[in-house]
Amino acid sequence: MTTRKMEEAETNNISLGERCDNTPRQIFNAPGKQKSKVWTVFGFYKMAGKLDRSHAICKLCRASLTYSGSITNLDQHAKRKHGEEYGEFTEQKRVGTSGKQARTENAIPTFFQRLGQNSARAREITASITRFIAKGLCPYNIVEWEGFQDLIHTLEPRYKIPSRNHITNTCMPALYAQVKSQVEEKLAKAERVAITTDAWTSCATESYVTITAHHIAPDWELHVYVLQTRAFKGSHTGKNVGALLKQACADWKILDKEPALVTDNATNMVLAGVEAEMTPHLMCFAHTINLATQKAFKMDTVARLLGKVRRVVGFFHRSVRAAEILQDKQKQLALPTHKLIQDVSTRWNSTQIMLERVLEQQPAISAALMSRDLRRGEELNTLKDKDFCDVEDIVKLMVPVKLVTISMCEDKRPTLSVISPVREKLKKTFEAADEDSVVIREMKQAFREDLEKRYTGLEDLFHTAAALDPRFKSLPFLTDHDAERTFANITAKATSLHNKALATGDPFHGGPLQTTPCQTEPALGELGIRIDAPQTQHEPEGLYILYRDQ
After folding, report:
1. Using CA of residue 429, residue 430, residue 435, residue 436, what is the dihedral sign?
2. How many CB atoms lie within 10 A of CB 67?
3. pLDDT: which is higher, 419 or 78
4. Which has the closest alpha carbon to 65: 15, 19, 20, 106?
5. Mean pLDDT of all residues belonging to the chain
6. Cβ neighbours, 10 Å, residue 360
7. Most confident range, picked from 10-14, 32-36, 173-177, 203-207
8. Is pLDDT above 50 for 9?
9. 507 falls in which pLDDT band (50, 70, 90)?
10. Taken in order 17, 24, 139, 204, is the CA torsion positive or negative?
11. 57 conformational bin, left if phi > 0, alpha if psi -120 to 50, beta if neither
12. Which residues, other chains included, contact 414 with Cβ-Cβ below 8 Å and sequence gap of 6+?
C-alpha cells in the first residue's frame, strides 16, 4: 500500500465521535503473545467485551488502521507520524524488558499527560485562541462548541481548553490592555489624527457609537484603529454625541493632535462636530452621493415609476406560484434563472441593482404577468413599454455613480483627494442635454442641486489634497487661475514645513521623496478622471480619511 493511500485510509478511519468525546474510548493493549515493538504505541478497542482486532488504534493520535495480521502498515505509521515518540517507547521497552519492570495493563503513555496550565505551550495556545476570538468577532462560548473542541484536541490532545468565564474575565481583558497600550504608544507619536464615528443599532435594538482613529506614522504608513464601540444611552443629540467624542479623545490622549472629524450628513452629527470643536469636519462622501441620488429618486415621476417596479417585484417575492411561473418563463425564453431583487430605501445602489435585474428579466416578467393562471383573481398594475424605456434610461444615467460608489467602497486607503475630481466629473455628467426625457431631466437637476450645496467652504482643502495626489496633480478639473492659486498655496506650505524641519531636525518633515509606479484603478478610470503618474511612498501632511468605514 502506498504512503498516500495509507494516509487516506488513516484519515477515513478516524472516528469523529470518539475524538470529540470528553472521555475518549479506552485503548487496550495487545495480547502478551504479540511481542513486536509496534504494540507499544498500538492497541485495540473492545466491542461486546472482546478486543476488536479488525482495527489497530494508535495510542498517540487515535488513528484507526486496518489490521489483518500484518504490522507493516502500523510500523510505517508510527515511524512516519510519531518518529521521536516511537523511538522513546522502543527504548523504554528494551530497558523495561531487561530489567523485568512490570507494566500496568491499559496504561496511557506519558505523551497523553495534560499540559500544565502555566506551561509555555498552554499559554501560547490560550493566547492564540483569545486573538482568534477577538479578530473574528466570535462569541466567547465558541470554546464550548463541540466542533471547536474537536479541532483543538486534534491539533494538541494534551491541551485543556479554558472555560468561557476564563476567556471573558481573564484572557480578553489582558489582551485588550496589551493592545490598548500599543495603540496609545503609536498615537502618541502621531502629529495629526483623524476621527471617524457613526451610531448604529444592534439586532437587540441597543444603540452603540463606534469611534475609529486614523493617522500617518513617521514611516509614512497609514494606520487605522477602532478605539471604542460603546453603548450609547439617552438621546442622540449633537451635544451628547459631541461630548462623547471629546471624552474619547481625552481618554486616548489625542486632544492635542487637533483631530479632524468625518461623519455622515445627519444633523446631530453636524452639531456634534461643532460641540467637539474638531476641524476640519468632513462629511462622508459616499453618504453624500447616496443623499444626492436619493433626492433624484424622490422626484414625482421617478417615484411613481419606482413604485410600479417595487409592486411587481414584491408580488413575485410574496407569491410562490408567481415565482414558479416566472422561472418557467425564464427557461422558455432562455434567460438566466435569476430572482428579482427588492431594493432597500436607504441604499441607492440597491435600487440600481433592482432596476438592472428588472431590465434583464423584462420578457419573462411580461410573459408571467400575462399568464392566465397567474392573473386569475389578481389585480396588478403591469409595467408598460414606456416604463421599461424610462427604467433603461435611469440605469444608464446612474452607471457613473455606481462606478464611483464601488471604487470608494473597495479603496482600502481612501483620502479626501478624490472628492473634488469625482464631484466635478459627476456634476458634468449630470448636465442637462437636449435629448433627455422628462424623467432624466428632473433627476439630473435634483442630483446636481443636492451635490452642489455640499462641502461649501472646503474647496481649498480639497484642491490642495488633489494637487498632492499624483493621480490628479495636474488639476484638470479646475480653471487655470484656481490651479495656479492652489499650487502657490502648496509652495508656501511646503516652504514652511521645510524651514520647520531644518529648525527642529524633525525627520517626519524632512528627507527626499521616493517614487514608485502606480497602477491606474479601472473603476474611476472609466470615468476619465484618473491618470497614470508616479505615486510617492510618502503621504502629504493633511491627507486624511475620505469617508467612514463601510
Report:
1. positive
2. 18
3. 419
4. 15
5. 82
6. 15
7. 173-177
8. no
9. low
10. positive
11. beta
12. 408, 545, 546, 547
How do beta strands 50-51 and 55-58 pair? unpaired
- Picking from 410, 128, 364, 247, the residue whose alpha carbon sits closest to that of residue 259 is 247
Q: Higher-confidence residue: 263 or 408?
A: 263
Distance CA 129, CA 167 (A): 9
Pairing state between β 194-201 and 260-263 = parallel
d(CA 425, CA 447): 13
How much of the chain exceeds pLDDT 70, in percent?
A: 81
What is the per-residue DSSP string for 259-280? -EEEE-S-HHHHHHHHHHT-SS
Cα 123 from Cα 131, distance rounded (Å): 12
- As a residue count, the chain comes to 550
Amino acid at 373: D
Mention every residue, 6+ apart, whose C-beta is less than 8 A from residue 374.
319, 321, 322, 325, 368
Inter-residue contact 93 to 36 (CB < 8 Å): no
d(CA 200, CA 231): 10
528 in the Ramachandran plot: left (φ > 0), alpha (ψ -120 to 50) or beta? left
Please determine, for residue 537, whether its predicted confidence score (pLDDT) is greater than 50.
Answer: no
Cβ-proximal residues to 387 (8 Å cutoff; 6+ apart), any chain: 305, 308, 309
Omega of the bond leading into 280 within 30 degrees of 0 (cis): yes
- Phi, psi (5° rounding) for residue 223? -110, 145
Of 313-327, 369-383, 416-430, the one with minimum mean pLDDT is 369-383
Q: Which three cell numbers stand for residue 474?
A: 495636474
Q: What is the pLDDT of residue 106?
A: 45
Q: Judge whether residue 543 has pLDDT over 70.
A: no
**100 contacts: CB under 8 Å, gap ≥ 6:** none
The residue type at 426: L
Angle at CA of residue 418, ends 415 and 422, nearest 5°:
150
Grid cell, residue 366, equals 411580461
Secondary structure string (H, E, C) spanning 307-346: HHHHHHHHHHHHCHHHHHHHHHHHHHCCCCCCCCCCCCCC
Using CA atoms of 319, 325, 327, 332 in order, give the dihedral in degrees to the nearest 10: -170
Residue 545 gets which letter from DSSP?
B
Q: Which three cell numbers stand for residue 124?
A: 501560547
Question: Cα(443)–Cα(34) distance, rounded to whole angstroms?
Answer: 88
Q: Sheet containing 42-44: give its strands across.
A: 28-29, 42-44, 55-58, 64-66
Q: Which three cell numbers stand for residue 60?
A: 498517540
What residue type is assigned to position 271 of the chain? L
